[in-house]
Write the structure tokens for this entry.
Amino acid sequence: MKIHDCKRPLSTSLLCAFLFFSLAAGNCTSPPAQGESSSAEPGSVSESSQQEPEPTFEAPTLEAPNAQLAFDQIMVGGQPTEADLEKLAASGVKTIINMRTAGEPGSWEEAPKASELGITYRDLPISGADDLTPENAQVLADLLGPEALPAFVHCASGNRVGGLFAVKAFHLDGKSLDEAMEIGEKSGLTRMAPVVRELLEGDGSE
């Protein structure tokens, strides 16, 4: 009886083995796990770089004379109106510092209105050049801590405010005389400038 050879040709066996291992290798490649990214696409922005910018204080337009943003979160100026306080509250102001003395012409009781609007009200009476002292400058610095900002600091016109900021810059912040005067003028110092300069020159010579 004739026996048939059941063996496949060698070339066919090799071809079958190649196809088998090719399919096996393809099945072993798994997709990236959920939440993982294999590679960033060109121009894509990572989640860590999409952080929200810190909010900035936008100073409102006030009726108060010489009202301006002197520092990042500190407005200065003259006597505000009730409408000004409402604008300040709406813009996020947390503190009002009043340098006017009790009973000055043109002043009014701001504290109740400020309280009604949720604004902290502070009195720091400065009657004139005699009150532009390092001690009062320290009080101003303490009142303007980070938790008090944004803030609005005022007197009648802004002149005394600028004077005290000049004293603060010179005595507490280590600024030179010219730098302190520049900061004072930026903060509202006008007609008292010669007196403030003379005051700081005297302090510097001691």
Remarks:
- Confidence is low (pLDDT under 50) at residues 1-11, 28-49.
- Strands lie at 68-71, 74-77, 95-98, 120-123, 151-154.
- Residues 68-204 form a domain with the Protein-Tyrosine Phosphatase; Chain A fold (CATH 3.90.190.10).
- The radius of gyration is 36 Å.
